Amino acid sequence: MGAGLPGHGEYDVVLLRHGETVGYDADHGLTPLGEEQARARGVALAAELKPGTTVVMPHARSARGTATAVTLRAALVEALGGEHVDGTEIGPLHPEPWFDNLRFNLHGEAVDTSVAVTTRLGLPDGEQLPDWAAEYDRFDTDYRAFAGGPIEWWLRNPTLYFEPPQVAAHRFWRGIAALGANRPENLVAVVCTHSAPMRAFVATAIGSDPGEPENLGEIRVRVRPDDSVTLTYRDHVVHMHVPPQLPPWIDRAWFESFGR
Questions:
Q1: Which of 9, 36, 78, 178 is most buried, judging by how many CB atoms fall within 10 Å of its CB?
Q2: Quick check: 97 and 81 in contact, CB under 8 A?
């Protein structure tokens, strides 16, 4: 994809932000426009695939991540004329926690931020907020001073209850590495995910936050047999390697069991 099919032992990963969602006050699905965005991206991706490509489709477990993946895959299969055409295989969808949305520490449990917001909205008015709710309110309200919205606030400010940006980036790398563990030749992974971990992933690679990806906006990652990587986002192209190990300040036991 992009510069052509991957060579022997190489594989490509396309990270896609979900389509336009109904809202962020709960775990909502897509609007009609979001569905159309996913269909259009599926058709566009189908035009890039060459015979002999194996496509795998992990996705975030949120409603909008899942809905985007379902619609995109259906459009991809329809545009190609089937799941198995000219040696090209479109694999089934499968939820993958490595590519989940930004997580929040709610009562000691790592949950999707949508769980945090619904729990916050259920708190009675007029009472002193617990610390986790006050921090969520800063994310949800005080970010208005930042042109980049709540994700820019999260990327710039240390927090006690939100998953740190570098942890989100490391889990994306772990998910990408896992995709290539038993890689067939000409493997392409199409991953429907979320803007917060996408921005953290890119920011740690290029050294700055390039801003919010549009709905169905993409990051492309080509991984080679020596774990060298070319990462492309908008006009940024970075050459690096898959991080070989976790830093010691990340809890390995929690990280390895992430979402499992």
A1: 36
A2: no
Residues 6+ apart with CB under 8 A from 160: 105, 131, 132, 135
pLDDT digit string (tens) for 9-42?
799 999 999 999 998 888 999 999 999 999 999 9
Backbone angles phi, psi at 13, to 5 degrees: -125, 130
Q: What is the DSSP letter of 217?
A: -
Cα 144 to chain centroid distance, Å, stands at: 24
Burial level of 236, CB count in 10 A (0-12/13-18/19+)?
middle
> Which DSSP string do the residues of 18-52 spell out, in sequence order?
PPPBS-TTTT--B-HHHHHHHHHHHHHHHHH--TT
CATH class of the domain comprising 11-101+163-194+218-256: alpha beta
SS3 label, residue 179: helix
Q: How far apart are the C-alpha atoms of 223 and 232, rounded to whole Å?
A: 12
pTM: 0.94
Q: How high is the mean pLDDT of the chain?
A: 92
CA pair distance 70, 4, nearest whole angstrom: 25
Q: Which of 236, 257, 256 is nearest to 246 (CA)?
A: 256
CA torsion 155-205-111-215 (nearest 10°) is 80
* Residue 199 to residue 209: CA distance in whole angstroms: 7
95-142 pLDDT tens trace? 999 999 999 999 999 999 999 999 998 999 888 999 999 999 988 874
End-to-end Cα spacing for the chain: 31
Domain map (residue ranges) of the chain: 11-101+163-194+218-256, 114-156
